[in-house]
């Protein structure tokens, strides 16, 4: 009698799509790991002041690691915050509290110009070598300078800068103040027409709301170390 061969039920069938899926997943994981390494390297370059801008830091980090894809500014900012926290520890929180109090004092001096605290001191991500960034709105920057001088603030330097935003050229006057604590303050004098305008943050992608004087005072009273960053 002729017997037909039967396929062993334990024999596994070949599924090329399964192998392809696993290979793709592994490739994706390697790409993600490399992207994270680029973010970490870029953050390290920023923290050590080897680079000042996110774009240049990311490009340099990618070149060093041989990576093509770049992380977002947000990813680098998260790594930068982590590095600062690990290195500076509790002193970092003391620094933030001091700088927010200093910001409140200088904003009270220029309160008639609708001051707004922005940057890392607003965000709650201030670290070693951070400055206090305050925007004020006034047609004549000399008025702001005179207010500061009247309160004996030491002005280190000042300059006029022009930038192009969304195709529109905007000029602003930058005043650099050095406090007794040696903390630096950069006061940007902008035209009153920009007061209340929403602007997107290039680092976090959200609206740069900042804190006005009343909001800062409330933050210092209720939650002085509060962070204002997207989750």
How would you describe what is shown here?
The chain folds into two domains: 16-88, no CATH class; 90-222, Beta Polymerase, domain 2 (2-Layer Sandwich). Strand 4 (168-178) and strand 5 form a beta hairpin. The protein is built from seven helices and six strands, in the order ααααβαβαββββα. With 231 residues, the chain is α+β, with helices and mostly antiparallel strands. The protein has a six-stranded mixed beta sheet. The radius of gyration is 26 Å and the shape is globular.
What secondary-structure arrangement, pairings included, does this model have?
Layout: H1 16-47, H2 54-65, H3 73-88, H4 90-109, E1 116-118, H5 119-123, E2 132-137, H6 141-150, E3 154-165, E4 168-178, E5 184-190, E6 211-212, H7 213-222
Parallel strand pairs: 2-5
Antiparallel strand pairs: 1-2, 1-6, 3-4, 4-5
């Amino acid at each position: 009698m002729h017997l037909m061969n039967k396929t062993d039920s334990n024999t596994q069938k070949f599924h090329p799509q399964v192998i392809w899926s696993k290979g793709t997943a592994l490739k994706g994981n390697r790409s993600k790991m490399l992207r994270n390494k680029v973010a970490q390297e870029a953050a390290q370059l920023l923290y050590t002041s080897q680079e000042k801008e996110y774009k240049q830091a990311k490009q340099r980090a990618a070149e060093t690691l041989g990576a093509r894809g770049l992380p977002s500014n947000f990813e680098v900012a998260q790594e930068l915050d982590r590095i600062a926290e690990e290195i500076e520890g509790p002193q970092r929180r003391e620094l933030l509290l001091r700088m927010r109090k200093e910001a409140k004092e200088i904003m009270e001096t220029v309160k008639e110009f609708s001051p707004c605290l922005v940057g890392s001191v607003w965000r709650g991500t201030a670290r070693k070598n951070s400055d206090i960034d305050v925007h004020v709105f006034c047609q004549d920057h000399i008025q702001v300078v005179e207010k500061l001088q009247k309160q004996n603030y030491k002005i280190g330097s000042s300059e006029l800068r022009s930038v192009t935003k969304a195709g529109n050229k905007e000029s602003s006057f930058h005043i650099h103040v050095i406090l007794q604590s040696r903390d630096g303050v950069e006061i940007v004098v902008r035209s009153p027409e920009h007061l209340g305008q929403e602007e997107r943050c290039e680092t976090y992608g959200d609206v740069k709301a900042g804190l006005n004087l009343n909001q800062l005072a409330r933050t210092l009273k209720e939650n002085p170390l509060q962070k204002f960053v997207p989750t």
